[in-house]
Amino acid sequence: MKKFYIFTLAIAIVFTLIVSSSHYVFAAGLITGGPLADDQVLEDPEPNGDDLREDRSGVDTWITKWYGPDGNYENNGTFQVSGPMDFIEEGSGGKLNQASLSTIDGLLMTQDIDMEWGDDHGGTRAWTVFEIDPADGNNMNRGGPIDNIDTYALIVIDSPSDMQAVMSPAHDDHAQIWINGEKWYNNTRWTGAARTILHDVEVDLQKGANVLLYRCGESGGSAYFNLHLDDATNDAVTVYPKDSTDQSSFFAEIQDIVVSVEPAGKLTTTWADIKQLK
């Protein structure tokens, strides 16, 4: 009995150490099994309570550089109204949508398609690289109105292999995230602070370039969107924009990893090939 007690105590100690050192999995709600099915794309995670909030202000790998429209979609009617709407499809006249924008082909199309959102919603938005401060609870406010806005932001994750990764979003309010044409995260609930998360999300990355689209809709008060990757993924991948500061330098930066996938039977073309054909 004494040996059994010592063995049981040892297991308990080991488990406690694992829990304390692996807080990304145990302290917050880990969402697995994605991408979201068609009937779940606008459903919040379950559970989605206050007990899942976790302060990640000590993390130093929050993403600060993004590529996207050079301003927000304005006068969205509150995020509750705007959430189901696709402002990328609206702004591109149907040439793009939110899912297709999160693909290599869609990303490439932004070189020639501005967002035409009309005077009531921000006007014409070109695409550029912009930088945010993850500690700023209002980092969505990029000029213009500070309430009733939607922000769209992209990164390219260059992965050395097919792998599972964990992304951690913080947002106020409604966050939606697509990767490579599929939706992996939807949550209408604000996370509580600019570097506080409600959920970690297990996602699949493919070898090479992965396009991630982060949309956040805001009504009033604080307005932020943030994202970091787990440490192992962050050490293995390269995230772009990296050194670029505008659209042209961004595409120059990723030209060696970006491949446009053509329909079956056609050759694949790189971004450099496409530019030469123009």
Helix and strand run = HHEEEEHHHHEEEEEEEEEEEHEHEEH
Q: In the CATH hierarchy, what is the class?
A: Mainly Beta
Radius of gyration: 20 Å
Largest sheet geometry? 6 strands, antiparallel
Distance between the termini: 79 Å
Number of domains: 1
Helix-residue proportion = 10-25%
Oligomer: single chain
Q: Name the average pLDDT.
A: 87
Helix segment count?
A: 9
CATH topology-level fold name: Jelly Rolls
Query: Total strand count, please?
Result: 18
Dominant shape: globular
In terms of per-residue confidence, which ranges show pLDDT below 50 for 5 or more consecutive residues? 1-27, 261-278
| CATH architecture descriptor name | Sandwich
Helix and strand content put the structural class at: alpha+beta
Describe this structure in words.
With 278 residues, the protein is α+β, with helices and mostly antiparallel strands. It has one domain (30-277): Jelly Rolls (Sandwich), CATH 2.60.120. The protein contains nine helices and 18 strands. The strands form six sheets. Strands 4, 8, 10, 11, 14 and 16 form a six-stranded antiparallel sheet that branches. A four-stranded mixed sheet has the order 1-13-9-15. The longest helix has 20 residues, at 2-21.
Task: Please summarize what this structure is.
The chain has helices spanning 2-21, 23-26, 79-82, 87-91, 98-101, 104-109, 231-236, 247-254, 271-277, and strands at 29-31, 54-55, 65-69, 73-74, 115-116, 124-125, 127-131, 149-159, 163-172, 174-179, 182-187, 196-197, 199-205, 208-218, 224-229, 238-240, 259-260, 269-270.
